[in-house]
Amino acid sequence: MALAPSINCAETDLTVDFRDQFLLTYQHMLLARVLEDKLGSLYRAGGRIVGGVYIGKGQEAFSAALGVQLRKGSDIYGPLIRDQAGRIAYGEPILDCVRTYLGTITGPMRGRDGNIHRGRPKEGLLAMISHLGSLLSVVAGGLFARRQAGTLGDSIGATSIGDGGTSTGAFHEGLNMAAVEKLPIIVSIANNQYAYSTPNTRQYACENLVDRAAGYGIEGASVDATDLASCLKAFRAAVARARSGGGPQMIVGTLLRLAGHGEHDDASYIPDKTRQGPSARDCLAVAEKFALDHGWMNSADLRDLNEEVRRNVDQTISKVSKEPAPDPFKENWQALSCADLVEGQHEA
Amino acid sequence: MPTIPILMPQLGESIAEATIIRILIEPGLMVEAGSDLFEVETNKATMAVSSPCAGKIGQIVATTQTSYAVGATLAALEITEEDAQSLGMGEETKPSSEAPHARGSTDVVENLHFQISDTDVISTRQPTVEPVVGGLPVPAGATGASYISPRMRARMLELGLNAADLAGVPGTGAGGRVTVEDFEAFLRALEQHRMTPASPMRIAVADSMRRSWTRPLATVGSPIMLDAMLAHRKKTDPKPGPALYVIRALALALAENTAFAGRLVGNRIVHPLAIDIGFAVEVDDGVMVPTLREVEKTPLVKLVPTYNKLVEQARARRLPNDVNRPGIATVTNFGTFGIVWATPIPLPEQNLVLGLGAGSKVPHWSEEVKQFIPVTEAELTLSFDHRVLDGGGAGRLLKRVAELLQKPELL
Amino acid sequence: MSITYLEAIREAQYEALRKDPSVFLYGQDIATFGGAFKATKSLSKEFPNRVFDAPISEDAMVGMAVGAAVEGARPIIEMQFADFSSVGFNQIVNQAATLYWRTNVPCPITIRMPSGGTAGSGPFHSQSMEAIYAHYPGLVIVTPATVEDAYWMLLDSVQLDDPVIYCEHKFLYYHLKADQIGERGLPIGKARIARPGRHATIVTYSAMVHEALRAAEELQLDGYSIEVVDLRSVKPMDTDTILASVARTGRLLALGEAFPWGGVTAEIIARVTTEGFHLLDAPPMRLNSKDTPIPYHPNLWKSHRPTTSTIAGALRRLLWY
Fold this sequence. Notes:
The complex is a heterotrimer.
Chain A: E1 6-7, H1 16-45, H2 60-67, E2 76-78, H3 84-90, H4 94-102, H5 134-149, E3 157-162, H6 169-180, E4 185-191, E5 194-195, E6 198-199, H7 211-216, E7 219-224, H8 228-243, E8 249-254, H9 272-275, H10 283-293, H11 299-321
Parallel strand pairs in A: 1-7, 2-3, 3-4, 4-8, 7-8
Antiparallel strand pairs in A: 5-6
Helix pairs in contact in A: 1-2, 1-3, 1-10, 1-11, 2-3, 2-8, 4-11, 5-6
Chain B: E1 3-7, E2 17-23, E3 30-31, E4 36-41, E5 46-50, E6 55-60, E7 67-69, E8 73-78, H1 81-86, E9 108-109, H2 118-124, H3 150-159, H4 180-190, H5 200-212, E10 217-225, H6 227-234, H7 242-256, E11 263-265, E12 268-270, E13 277-279, E14 281-283, E15 286-288, E16 291-292, H8 300-315, E17 329-332, E18 352-356, E19 360-366, E20 371-385, H9 391-405
Helix pairs in contact in B: 7-9
Chain C: E1 3-4, H1 5-19, E2 23-27, H2 43-46, E3 51-53, H3 58-70, E4 74-78, H4 89-103, E5 110-115, H5 130-134, E6 140-142, H6 147-159, E7 164-169, H7 172-175, E8 176-178, E9 192-195, E10 200-204, H8 208-220, E11 226-230, E12 233-235, H9 239-249, E13 252-255, H10 263-275, E14 285-287, H11 298-304, H12 308-320
Parallel strand pairs in C: 2-3, 2-4, 4-5, 5-7, 6-7, 10-11, 10-13, 13-14
Antiparallel strand pairs in C: 1-8, 6-12, 9-11
């Protein structure tokens, strides 16, 4: 028995505004799915992708339902590894994604970092580091500084993590600090059952991760993360509470990662029983059926949308493929912004 | 009463440590300024450590037959406040708790050390010295170090100097090595002398000798009678010089066994390609060594014109450039300077130099006539690289040359 | 009227808060209480809503500062002791230090680290962390040794657009005094000749500058003049000033209070031997603390770190060579 409520979407929630957001979010999810499928096949084909590919298949609804609530440019978003859909929903162009995966000099990371480690911090999109949990305090710090400078207004911050990441000290420190400061931050926890190969029975001992919200003195809710409608309802409510001074909000979504940790991983450690369980529903199919059932889309709309998304992805990849890789001789090799303090002339 | 430490004094410029050989005091003893307290021995001398002022001996830390670094505490001395002040060891600068304040700094460090009692200071001081300075290749107490520091080497390169140029500089560094300061002092001292530039010839000779001197060279010598040679010379036209006789004799001897003229390179003997023999010609401010080719193949008389021409060319410094095949040995007739005996140095690319001293009339016991007869005798010397030849081998070569010179008509 | 090293740090923070509204202070016990060492005494009263108590969460403190810096703030983080920064290590070296290089967004944060040993402080309140952080690209590490530098370098650190690890030595807090703060000195990145000399050079930083100066005084009695170079910032390291000094003296002693393995003294020697081999008339020497945790009891502690007498001993061996 969880201490926090579990959110379910009811027919009474389905306003026109809700419908519009649902359809918009579905498009983001579809674009993310098609893009990541493409990145996965590029990875398996070899040669184009620099480094690994880490996809969020099965997590699109939960991720995008948060991203779509955020205001690009004023809200601070710290997405994590399986947030391609959330990134698109937030407003990150897929060009940034493809350029970073292909490591071109044109991307936001300019070949200095890759794949999901990308962002444009000055535009509110933070670039994650690999150390899980460490982004939470960074998002909190941005909000803290705004509040201190009197520029916070009703802007909020949001960051994602998985069940494994909640075990880190950084996650605890960051969430506790955000709670102490009552910062308007959404912490979304995608409980996808496995941290790489480790099942969550080896990750935490509480009944439901959302129980921890009470311990931090913050609000929390859980949701079936395969169901877009419920995810939207949960995040809409949480974001509204955060914007109106309700402090940190924890949303825990239950789902299953429908892919490996990365594209190198076949996830053979996930037993068939789990693969066939309720958390293994494909959120994209669930959302599609929901929209069709409610007459929000027909099969022709779906076909057109699919074609448009595929064209968009193919064109983007084709464009980026022609873009230059970074040149080590043009790289300035300076880790400091103050060029006069840069060392390194000594070994030359 | 303030207590001051008795320290191992600086006993000489290059002395880092000294061994206590006798303790002349005991705790509680009253001493005067200048009283001898310890007898110490360095690698240079035995001397006394004396008291800096009057006072009462406190704890004695030093033990005999132990080596202490310069500056190490040997004992404690209780002295009057007045003496402490005059020694610059008043309350503020007492070495027991406080070293002098940083001078010229606006920051003043107060009480940076823990307050520790004087006896603490004395007992925690490390009494002995490591025999080898960590990381430094010269052991303490050694002398005659030839180590040249990177800075010394750079400075010498800058000035075009060789290690040999520093032979006259006494080093004050570890193991007697020459420090840069010694070196600069040496250079300053040189400035007081009249200095003239050395000629290119002088520098070439110096360079050649310096390179040659990297090998262990040795010399053997033996008197020979010149009468047969002189008689032969009288009746020969054109007349060969004495040096040419020796050149021809050496060539024939070497033709019998070229190994004598081999050079050691690594673990192999490098044998000569041909019996080319050089000979020393004195020129202005130096020596030139023209080379006669394949001497063993040409009879003595036929060598005379070539020899004379080479001498002329050498004196005019117009020798043909034949550096590609240097000679394998050199003959020097130092007898022309009136010298009887010498140890010439072989050229760096050669193993052998054969020298001929000045001849003189000496009585010689003749078995034939059973009486002393006057003969002309001179010393023949052979200098060689001892890595290649030993005294026995060099002696046999010398003896063979001497034999050949007794039958000049065969040369 | 005089001012201590600690008071200079407080004054610099006062001035930074006064001059620039984007500056704020965040750390444990620093608001009403004024900090464990009183380095922020009464600042929370003088600057309401600018000085904040943090939970005991070094990781979150630094992460928070990075997020704030992205938003244009210039936070000063106080670690209660440099030792505890190890808990925030990941945020310092991976988040703060990489931000500019990865995203082109500067990270102007200053992390104050009360560093170095004092009597009876033991293994976890005495550490010198400068070498650890200097190892990572993207950080500036300053180590002021004077009242003047404590003040001006802290102000400069706050103004710098890069993350600065400001190592303030606890030993100097109360003992080091100046008549006044004095004029602005050298910029960050330039070393200072604390004492000119011609027989040997000591290159050092932070509190060891004062031990070096005292050892130099001691050697003066034997007729040796010792040059003391105060690095001021260990990164960037002013190699030119070090080499120029070794060019004058030919002998080098690299001195530091930190642990002996690797570190700043090793870096000094590496640079001098690679770039100034031809300047050395003696093998360069190093003097550091011993390779054990920092002991608690004063008897052990005073032998663990370099002292005036061990420095003088090292100098004698160096000069004797």
